Structure formats: C-alpha cells, structure tokens
Amino acid sequence: MRQLDALKSPRFTQISTFGRLPICEKNEEIKAAFLGIPFDDAVTYRPGARFGPMGIRQGSRLLRPYNQFLDTYPFDKLNACDMGDINVIPGYIEDTMNAIQTSLYEIISSKNLVPFIAGGDHSITLPILRTLYKKFGKINIVHFDSHYDFWDSYWGKKYTHGTWLRRAIEEGLIKEAVQGGIRASTFSKEDLRDKERLGIRSFTIRDLKYNLDTVIREINSLSGPTHVSIDIDVVDPAFAPGTGTPEVGGLTSFEIIEIVRKLRFDKLVGFDVVEVAPPYDMSEITAMLAANIIYEGMSVLSLNL
Ligand SMILES: [Mn+2]
What we know:
Number of helices: 11
Helix content: 25-40%
Family: Belongs to the arginase family. Agmatinase subfamily.
CATH architecture: 3-Layer(aba) Sandwich
GO molecular function, one term: agmatinase activity
Low-confidence stretches: none
Protein name: Agmatinase (Agmatine ureohydrolase) (SpeB-2)
Keywords: Hydrolase, Manganese, Metal-binding
Bound molecules: manganese (II) ion
Distance between the termini: 15 Å
Cofactor: Mn(2+)
C-alpha cells in the first residue's frame, strides 16, 4: 500500500499525477503505468486533445484505492505509477509517431508493463500498435468509437485520427479487430463495405445497446496479446462533451464503465483512451469519465494477479 500516505493527504494539495499515484522511478517492478501523449495535430475537426493527459490527471483525483465492483485494489496490485508524457513534436505527425515508437518501446521492451495511455487524438494508436507489434507480434485490437476510423485518407493524407485502423491493418500489425459503438453518418454506403474487406468485426451502437452480451463474448474470446483503444466519443456528448468529433446517440457513462468491467483478456498489453479535449469539457465530466475508464481497465488487468 505504498501510495496510501499520499492518498490520505488533502486532494487539492497533491501534484497532478494520475490517481495521485507516485511518479514512476526506474527499476521498480511496475505492472501498469499511466502515460500521456499530448498530441492533437491529426484531428479533422476540433483540436484540443493535446490537453487530454493533464485533464485526465485532474479528473482522476477522486479515484480511491478499492474497486468494490471488481473486488480489487488495482493501483496496489499493479504497483501503478505515472510516467509523465511522451515528448511529441507539435505540427509534425510522422515525426511524432516516430517519437512515440521510440519512447514507448524504451518503456515496454524490458518490462512486463502495460501502458495505460491518455491521448491525444486517435492517430497515436497507430504508433502504439507498431510498438506493441515490435514486442509481441500481431496484436488484437478492441476498439470502442462512434466512428469506423478505417478511412483511407483525409485531404489526400494517410495519417490522421480517422485512418489509423486501416494503416494498422495494411501494415500487418493486427491479428483480429473488433470494434463497437459505431453510429456516425458516413460519406457513402460504399464505405461500409470496407469493414468486411479489412476483416473488422464491427458492432454498431445498437449492438452495444441491445446485444451487449454477444459483443462482450466476441471480445473475451480473443486469444493472444490485445490492445484496447477507447475513443471517448463512443460515449454520448451529453455525458462526454469534451471531445473533438462528438456524435449524438451514444453510450452513457455508466454503460462504458460497465462494458470495461466485463472485459477479460487472455493477455492485455496496452490500453488507450483518446480524444478527450478539455477545452470543450464542462465541470470535468469528460475528464473524470476518462480517468474512471482507465481505472476500470487497470482493475480488470489486476484481476489476473
Ligand atoms: Mn471517434
């Protein structure tokens, strides 16, 4: 219960680490770490997700050590800590992807540490997957979003927050892809064919709302290394307004938290929550939700320990 002294202190006097966890120190036996990637130059609409990591840290201050629904002390079991943020290069998408790959590989290559990453826009998931692939080989991706994110390009450009999933599949990084929560209008009916062609098992928001057990069963039957990527816009803007590309008619905050609680993994190797844009948030509700999603993700991981 290493972090308990800090947890007893008044919340407003603490430095902003995720969950008021200690800052990671070298050579610790860390099984999970919070890591920020404050990059948002690959968005197609509203910027602001570069402030996501600090917003989520701020929104995480009320997290407490015991999760009664999963009966676990995630922070303690995982010896969790906050690694700070990766140095990104504002304005330079491909340079930033390289920087993410270098830093993240340094972090995970020699340790059995699962990074819990706060974006940043969704473009960061491509370099995350490349890095996980370098260590583990092909990765399953479990993707919650209101958007497909498998577009070929925007304005003729291949690297954006709406193209990372197609790039990851084209680059051969992905073993199986399951996505859920899709509801945004698309550019044409033809676009929908791509999900079969790319081999993505895609579930709409209706599937999550009406047939959740089926979706959970699909996800929980995946074997091998798995990365979870949650775009906060899978949640309804009424519950998560602080995001760059909001789509109405989404999950409630309770629903996304419950979904995460039901996930079980053969081997969870990475987890990201992206597209939290504090400039559009109100009363920190989006940031608090993102923080709690990460907390539940850590809790699920801790169940295997
Ligand atoms: Mn999205």
